[in-house]
User: Fold these one by one.
Assistant:
Number 1:
Amino acid sequence: MNRRSFLQTSVYVPAGLFLTGNGLAQALGLLSPGNVVKLRCLGNIEGPRFLDGHTANGTVGLAPNSHPPYTGTSWQLMDAGQGAIALRCLGDIEGRRFLDGHTADGTVGLAPNTHPPYTGTRWQVMEAGQGAVALRCLGDIEGRRFLDGHTADGAVGLAPNTHPPYTGTRWAVF
């Protein structure tokens, strides 16, 4: 099946279906290298929700849906070693591709590759309860760590934890 027909026939599957029993192990099985996923922010404020990489300028935001022109909402999972993943944006425009958390200042962008100095391109998938996952940045510099969607304004950053008021740190995967 080609990428286009996969994306056209993909069905929303709540991450909770895969997070029963040994939830983290099952999530890592679902989130295995090579798979293409979409991430929907579960923040409690209405607004855009889909993680969207802007490959032309290396930024990341939230899109209102995952259909064109929001081609940066598809992410290919890659093995980043030691149980970590990297997320490669599949946007149509050439440019930076790898989700990169900047732990020193709490921002998020796209990096051109996953090699140093881009240590924020490695992510740990964590169970976040009620069928959600959290993505913890494994960057070398201490600071904020959890991918946090700001549904009120469509921005994305890093939060210090996954507790309220950081409701945008919970993500549905499909």
Number 2:
Amino acid sequence: MTLSPKQLRSAAVVLLAAAAAAETIKAPAFAAAESPETRVLSALNLANIPASRDKLQFLAPLSLSNPSATFKVMGVEKWQESSAMARIRCVKAGDCMPFYVLLKWPTAGERDASLHAPMLVKERVQTHTGKDVAVRSGDKATLVLQNDKFRIVTPVTCLENGVVGQTIRVRRADNKKIQMAEVEEPGIVKGIL
């Protein structure tokens, strides 16, 4: 059986369309196959912060609503001696909560040389009072609600930085309700029942 030139062109168009569709389908599967660690390293490198797996430490388990979420570096602050904290969020807001990763270098000099993205780098966060921050945005904390008769303890996520005595916004884990709470100490906030 021989095909006419018109039939050959039609068959070629169908084959090319099928090949293009197959490539389109493969692209998201490849992105989902990358580990979150690899995607965080890519985001850091895009922000001109050279990082490698041996320098990177997640501070808490990462919870993603979209397994192929992409990340963006929101800022970096110099931390103890030779480390830095990078604040990262998902490009699409609903894919994850903002989170921090710790970056480590052998010396403070090497850290300072590596952090050459001045718009993203900050010194350790302090408030106008000069007190150290007790809780940071994205940190998990315990909310204590108490009155004369009851005491309720529930996990929350801090939505802003705060020093001891400062009132901040927190999101409850059980019902996602946002409320105000006073910072008692690192990891503990107090609300009104």
Number 3:
Amino acid sequence: MKLLGVDGTLYKFISRVWDLIKLNFAWLLCSIPLITFGGATVAAFDVASRMAADEEGDILKDFIKSFRSNFKSSIVHGLLFLFGTYCLYIDWQITVNVQEHEGVLLALTIIASVAYFVYFAFSFVIRARYVTPLIMAFKNSKRICIKFFGRTILMLIVIALVCLVFQWNTLMIFIGFLLAPALIIYVISAFAIIFFREIDEENKSGDADRELAAGKRSTDCEKKES
């Protein structure tokens, strides 16, 4: 039957889930020393974006290759992300537990959360697919969030649903440990690939945001497209 064959939908689904589990394992393992978190995350986005663009090869080999090439340049990126995440966690704990000036605290925490999201949302996948400085990655992440505002909100809703599903019960929490981080990375990458393609098309037609399209593609991506 076609459904169960090598080219069938079920086989492709199981194969993709297995690829995500392998990617998740590699990302978790390489993120344990916090200083390597940035390189591991850029590598995970590199592999996931290739998967989303149907460019993937060997998941683990591609991850290791990308991790090695991005490790040093992504140390600060990863540490900033972890520090920002911790600061937001503390902010929300204070906002929830402090009664005095709660309206002001809530407003400030929401503003901080939005700023954190727009600057980090696409920064890792941008650095995975493009050769660009960290500051430019943050700026372009913000521009993408604004330019594709509706679909960025849709992406956020999808991520929220993924998080809710994997907190449903003990079994789903266990499955989420095996799959959820890589699945979230894949969701972001899938949306980002669509946005990148639209920006490239606009750039070809001369209608693109020049700063947004200014990043040079990495060598591997150029070779695959040539």
